Amino acid sequence: MSEIRMGLVGSGGMAWRRARNFQEIPYSKVTSIAARNPETGRALANEMKCHLHSDWRSLIDDEEIDAVVICTHNALHGEIVIKALENNLHVFTEYPIARYQNEIKKIRQLTKKSSPILRAAHSETVSLEHQALKDQIEGMGDLVASNFLRLTPNRGTRPEVLFNLKLSGPPALFFIYHIYPMIDLFGPAIWVESHANYRNLRKNGSYDCFFNTLTVGFAEAGIAQWTWAGGIEIKSARQFEHIVLSKGTLTYERENWTFSNRETVKDLKTPIMENETLEAQFVREILEENDLWREDLETALHATEIGIAAEGSATKGSRLILPL
């Protein structure tokens, strides 16, 4: 394949970023854009000097593309992924990879054996910091518990989309990038328990602020807990993260991981090297025709299952056993 022709769905900020990044990579070219917004869609298509579709389905059916890049509402991710795979197209999608459990089941079926590449945009797959964390954890015994807390007054650049259950799903899905690393570190979960509160939740799915908690139990050992609160009364965003293992504790603060036990405290050292970009990784894997993406895909799918189960648990008011 001399050139990988990319069709991109979306025309928001992330779509612009992905389009520019893919356009700069050798053997990669954005040749089609699909956007609901004619103004931003036309502007992006003009910059890329490519064709503009008004509907993602017509882009998927375009015989002049080899891969699809999905940068639209979370609610559409799974549907577009499935249609693209069925059309034998490689797929790069923003997270979450799907919105519903039946979509995850179908994606697993489509990627079970030989299939085009499917990559979700989780940065841990190219992060040297995450690899250093994995290496450190290997010698620290069993997981006891991890705890993550994020408090923020912000509602995102487009709160009408982010703070909308129908468009973006619950926080456990749009904050899935907090869940994915723990699944990659400690393996699959066997149960999920969640509680949710949305202030001024409306019939169209929008709300003003939220408070969500999520706890999972891992098959191997230990639990992980996440607490997210957004749009709340606080001066500035605060975030805390701890991982307690049988032989020590890891704490994330000031953009750095610290290891401690009863005798010592030390910073984790990350190699001073430039990470490969997610876009470059995707292009390289297409050119090399390798299967290294499959393990990362299963991690992404399981993290998404947890986000979906969190929504179900909060609705039912009870713990859910995985798989769903």
Furnish the topology, listing elements before pairings.
Elements: E1 4-9, H1 13-24, E2 28-34, H2 38-48, E3 51-53, H3 56-60, E4 67-70, H4 74-86, E5 90-93, H5 101-110, E6 118-120, H6 128-137, E7 143-152, H7 159-162, H8 165-168, H9 171-174, H10 176-186, E8 189-199, E9 209-218, E10 223-230, E11 238-245, E12 248-253, E13 256-260, E14 265-267, H11 278-288, H12 293-316, E15 320-321
Helix pairs in contact: 4-5, 10-12
Describe this protein's structure.
- This protein has two domains: 4-123 and 277-290, Rossmann fold; 125-275 and 305-321, Dihydrodipicolinate Reductase, domain 2, CATH 3.30.360.
- Helices cover 37% and strands 28% of the residues.
- The chain is built from twelve helices and 15 strands.
- Strands 14-13-12-11-7-10-9-8-15 form a nine-stranded mixed β-sheet, covered by helices on one side. It has a six-stranded parallel β-sheet with strand order 3-2-1-4-5-6, sandwiched between helices.
- Helix 4 packs parallel to helix 5 (101-110) and helix 10 packs across helix 12.
- The two termini are 40 Å apart.
- 40% of the residues are buried.
- The model has no long low-confidence stretch (mean pLDDT 96).
- It comes from Candidatus Moanibacter tarae.
- Its EC number is 1.-.-.-.
- It holds the Pfam family GFO_IDH_MocA.
